[in-house]
Amino acid sequence: xxxxxxxxxxxxxxxxxxxxxxxxxxxxxxxxxxxxxxxxxxxxxxxxxxxxxxxxxxxxxxxxxxxxxxxxxxxxxxxxxxxxxxxxxxxxxxxxxxxxxxxxxxxxxxxxxxxxxxxxxxxxxxxxxxxxxxxxxxxxxxxxxxxxxxxxxxxxxxxxxxxxxxxxxxxxxxxxxxxxxxxxxxxxxxxxxxxxxxxxxxxxxxxxxxxxxxxxxxxxxxxxxxxxxxxxxxxxxxxxxxxxxxxxxxxxxxxxxxxxxxxxxxxxxxxxxxxxxxxxxxxxxxxxxxxxxxxxxxxxxxxxxxxxxxxxxxxxxxxxxxxxxxxxxxxxxxxxxxxxxxxxxxxxxxxxxxxxxxxxxxxxxxxxxxxxxxxxxxxxxxxxxxxxxxxxxxxxxxxxxxxxxxxxxxxxxxxxxxxxxxxxxxxxxxxxxxxxxxxxxxxxxxxxxxxxxxxxxx
Length: 458
Ligand code: UD1
Ligand code: CA
Known about the structure:
Largest sheet: 12 strands, parallel
Helix content: 10-25%
Mean pLDDT: 96
Radius of gyration: 32 Å
Low-confidence stretches: none
CATH class of the largest domain: Alpha Beta
CATH topology of the largest domain: Spore Coat Polysaccharide Biosynthesis Protein SpsA, Chain A
Bound molecules: uridine-diphosphate-N-acetylglucosamine, calcium ion
């Protein structure tokens, strides 16, 4: 089958009114990735080399987004929404290039699984002209019913066109179809719009093909994989199912999730075996974690690379460009952005490290801040191997702390510090013997005098 060429036509022209959104429906995200991009991924995983995206509502925004998530996709604009068959025909130029298999998919089914598509393609390879992917939703209302006769699929009837008897059928059209490229355009062009909605239904190709004695078959996919998203409640439902699957996969691949239901992954999170993730951790896009790391509770991590045996959190925030090398440690209430924390370096408490390098084995004291921004530009802080930054220091970038450099607590460092030097950047302490007692006595007698004067007034 791998030799068979395959085009995926993804329908995404609809408005998605029920999302009540300025954003086209299929660009709403599941696991940080637009729904339609999930569909593209599934198509690619099923071997589609050609991608045709049918757009309409919000076409400009869709084109821009598609350039990011599916740069290889061709876009076709369906000017008027005259039905699903009409939408597929909008991609005529792609279909007529002559693919062996044409997969038709909807842009709003983000949980679609590639296996169902692969199974459908296999049936095409075995000689079917049309393969309909069916499913059994808990409530079939609203879906097209698969009408079978003598074990053969003969038609798909849209709910609105169903008889009372047909409405009782539980086996429904999930929306995805695989059509032999050799027949696709001929079948689509034969579709008319004589139905209750006056639309050109893709589903009509089933009846047309079976009337021509072509082989038409139905396969079955899980309900979840065909879940179509129409509003934000369903979007949240899809997110929940996606997260549940991902957590399960993570655990089976050797990651410990102490409270899996509280850990949120992104579509591209990579996480190695023997990593332990404590409760309430959020992974945004672009996170890669090697093996044996510990991610403590309430950490928020995006765009970060975490090497083996690192320790992160609790309450750590790793932002894009955070790059923790082996055994680095970023502790509670620390924020790291665009910075390398080299092997074994420690950033343990209440610190901001941005646009910086922290050398191997360096120790960053509590409350250290890299002052990387002057309101206009960002500047770099370079902290050498084995340096020690005393608590509550401000490192005003651009600045370099040499290897083994030692910064006194509470310093404001504005000039670079050579290797192994000690730098103070604060006023020297002055201690006056007895002065504390003297002050206390003066303040106490002033307060007593005030109280007496107030009493005399009454
Ligand atoms: C469709 C199927 C139905 C199936 C259901 C599964 C048809 C006729 N019906 O019904 O059998 O059970 O999906 O969810 O195919 N679109 C366009 N242009 C159009 C019309 C639709 O791009 O002119 C896109 C929509 O944006 C959407 C998809 O096609 O992504 C499906 O269209 P929709 O109108 O939602 O079809 P359903 O009535 O749900
Ligand atoms: Ca729909």
